[in-house]
Amino acid sequence: MAEKENIIIESGDAVQPFAYSVGMHGSKFFAEIRDHQRFLGIKCSRCGKVYIPPRGVCGDCFAEMNDWVEVGPKGVIGTFTILRYAFIDPETGVQKPVPYGYGFIKFDGADTLFQHYINIEDEAKIRVGARVEPVWAKHRKGSIRDIEYFKVID
Amino acid sequence: MDRAAIIGVGMTKIEKRKIRQTFADMAWEAVNKALTDAGMTMDDIDNVVTTSSDFWDGRTISCMAVGDASGAAHKNISCVEGDGTYGAFYGMTRALSGSYRTTLVTGHTKGSESVSSLITNAAFDPIYERSLGMDMITACAMQARSYMHRTKTTSEQLALVSVKNHGNALKNPLAQLPLNLTVSDVLASEMVADPLHKLDCSPVSDGCAAVIIAHESVAAKFRQKPVWVRGVSFCADSFFFGDRDLSRAGSLAQAAKKAYAMAGIHDPKKEIDVAEVSDAFTYQELLWLEEMGLADDAAAGKQLERGDFNLDGPLPVNASGGLLSGHPVIAAGLYSMAAVVRQIRGDAGGFQVKKAKTGLVQGVNGLGGQSHCVWILDKDK
Q: Is the minimum CB–CB distance between A84 and chain B shorter than 8 Å?
């Protein structure tokens, strides 16, 4: 008897490149990180909530925001995980080295949380509420990777 | 307000890889099963709503590719990108609109044909989140941590959700992963992203489900006893994870409250007999139950240990095996809905619960439960 054969059509290597607009808020945010290593949030003049990353509209109030405020750069871990499974890096398409830490940072002066990597060299120190600070990349290009990671300073 | 009822359901078996079926083949199977279940022919269907995700299907306007196999030729077809419960909501409003009396709603996903972590990664913000590698498992691991931190729920309690639901799946021939597990098995499974083990996570799945929704004027015209929609609501939270209190799901509490009000339910713990909720990850079943008032705040884990949510408990939850036992993402809510419909009709087979007059279905759309859709279904109008 002939062996069964599954015929599969693969999608091939073609990609759909995108050019995402960062917008005026993102541009200011990333320029400030690149040039001055400072985090800018934005405050709703109606409810007073300070958002990071900054954006044009407070969703709760449906109101435009224009009030820039500096937050951080220190903060605390809001929540975190340690990734242990093989993960394909969406930027490069190759497998990411694991494990690595990932968390939400509550910057001093902000009301929302900011996500980034957390250094897990000393895993015992990683906990909700631990104080952290950013470690900046040497060559900053105006992107989220201008921050290498956050490290615990407790 | 006019009333609507669910008068037919049909589902493919949920499988890891449906290599013998295309998207349209899956739709054909589920749609015909639903028509047979309802005692209808395609001529009795006034309009069609399909539910799918373009990224998972690997094509844009994916709804149009399953139109023929869903009986949409010469009919009005529209689509929803999101969980099947949202497709059903849209389908119901069409049946109530006066323009149509019956809507066929389908939902399909094939997780097997792509890399799921890249698909869910692509749902995150491309400027701030995506390049760091955020995906559904990473995000939900952080939500799990946040929930456990606030409520002191333990890893053992999370594991027990997996034990219960995989065990229930042993009685559901449509489930992908019926498993006889112990808490230690779950805790010994690979740590995927702290605090989530592999068996805390739902599998990658293929499947398609269909439901038929009818206006009250025609609901009793066909073979099945109608299952009535008593209440339904959905609410959404902020897009950015960091904007939300990750240990809670405020939009779910709101959606449930509105659905209860519409259904005239005052004490959900007593009045809901059976529930199918979105357990893509173990902790979610507990968190969602608390937010819907079906468990006490921060106590769902303890109630689970007591057996409250077991198949023979006071409130059976995910008697079908839930999403942990098979998770065709976009179709998931329709599978949950079909499971509750079958409970209420008394034909759930091996996973039939004793009392099933009033049932609850919860569907989730967006990352980590950004939006929730809650249905109250009932034997009585």
A: yes
ipTM: 0.90
Give just the sign of the alpha carbon dihedral B348, B349, B352, B355.
positive
3-state secondary structure of B281: strand
- Chain A to chain B Cβ contacts (< 8 Å): 106
Sign of dihedral through CA atoms B175, B347, B36, B380?
negative
Chain A residues with CB-CB distance to B134 below 8 A: 102, 115
| B326 in contact with A, Cβ within 8 Å | no
- Residues of chain B where predicted confidence (pLDDT) is lower than 70: none
The mean predicted confidence, pLDDT, of chain A is 92
* Furthest-apart CA atoms within chain B: distance in Å: 56
Cβ atoms of B353 and B316 within 8 Å: the answer is yes
- Chain B residues whose CB is inside 8 A of the A59 CB are 238-239, 243
**Beta carbons of B126 and A80 less than 8 Å apart:** no
> DSSP assignment of A6-43, as one string?
-------S---------HHHHHHHHHHHHHH--EEEEE
Eight-state DSSP code of residue B113: G
Q: Report the number of distinct structural domains present in chain B.
A: 1
Q: Does B272 fall in a domain?
A: no
Q: Do A81 and B193 touch (CB under 8 A)?
A: yes
Q: Is residue B39 in some structural domain?
A: yes
- Has residue B171 been placed in a domain? no
Structural domain includes residue B72: yes
Parent domain of B70:
4-115+204-215
Q: Which two tokens stand for residue A43?
A: 């405050």
pTM attached to this predicted model: 0.95
Chain segment B120-129, per-residue pLDDT in tens = 998 999 999 8
| CATH for B28 | 3.40.47.10
